[in-house]
DNA sequence: CGCAACATGTAAGTTTTTCTGACATTTACC
DNA sequence: GGTAAATGTCAGAAAAACTTACATGTTGCG
């Protein structure tokens, strides 16, 4: 039973499987790749192949998007440009987010639990 | 990170991924299914979908085949008809196997480590 | 308000993968 | 030599994935 560890790093999952595991559309997954957030490999037939680590990253992105972050935010949070200002960076994004959130929460009926920036 | 436990039982892997993880051909995987040894589900497009448990079962089959067992043996070992004779069953198969092996080992140059019943 | 950027949807055309069914080949065994 | 088991291979059809391009809803801002 070595395949489970392999799956963590081994790129064998096609995009359809990743769609099922993440509840993301192929469009979203490819777009996040175009923005440099995931880097799947390709098989001999030029199809994207993902590892379970990729799936986890996509779940993380999905979570942060659901929290109202923008893709640029997610990218910055994942790749802080300098150690020195990474804290400031994070705090800035979080502050912006809080402001954003409070502004959005002024709207009536914010919905069940997670309401903003959820069109689909 | 709930997808890893899901993968144990959730049928999301297409046959191509299973081929990579098991080093079996699609022909072999489908044949083992036809013999009742694995039971993949089907997606909306009628494509087979496998779980990691299925992958493990296939690896087990592959291992036993490499040991010289026949598919019928594998099937019997997995589904003994009665509790009472399951031991006898196992012993019979193992005895047959030993006889088989010693007979085969009379042939000259048995190959590197595992040599018999390995065509590909 | 209006406009630009962001995120996603959708459609068309092509390539790759998977499907079923049939026939061929190899190997082991009586 | 003949039979059964296991796998290979091929053909035609359906599904999945790819790229490119255009459309749409949403957000932030002057």
From TrEMBL, chains A, B:
SUPFAM superfamilies: Putative DNA-binding domain (SSF46955). SMART domains: HTH_MERR. It holds the Pfam family MerR_1. Residues 12-80 form the HTH merR-type domain. GO terms for molecular function: DNA binding; DNA-binding transcription factor activity. Keywords: DNA-binding, Repressor, Transcription, Transcription regulation. Coiled coil: none annotated. Residues 99-108 have a biased composition (Polar residues). Residues 98-120 are annotated as: Disordered. This is MerR family transcriptional regulator. It comes from Lacticaseibacillus chiayiensis.
């Amino acid at each position: 039973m070595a395949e489970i560890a392999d799956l963590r790093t081994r790129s064998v999952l096609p995009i359809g499987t990743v769609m099922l595991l993440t509840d993301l559309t192929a469009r979203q997954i490819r777009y996040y790749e175009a923005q440099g957030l995931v880097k799947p490999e390709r098989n001999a037939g030029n199809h994207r192949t993902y590892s379970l680590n990729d799936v986890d990253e996509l779940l993380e992105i999905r979570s942060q998007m659901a929290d109202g972050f923008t893709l640029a935010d997610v990218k910055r949070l994942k790749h802080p440009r300098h150690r020195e200002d990474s804290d400031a960076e994070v705090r800035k994004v979080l502050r912006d987010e809080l402001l954003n959130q409070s502004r959005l929460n002024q709207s009536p009926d914010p919905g069940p639990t997670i309401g903003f920036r959820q069109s689909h």
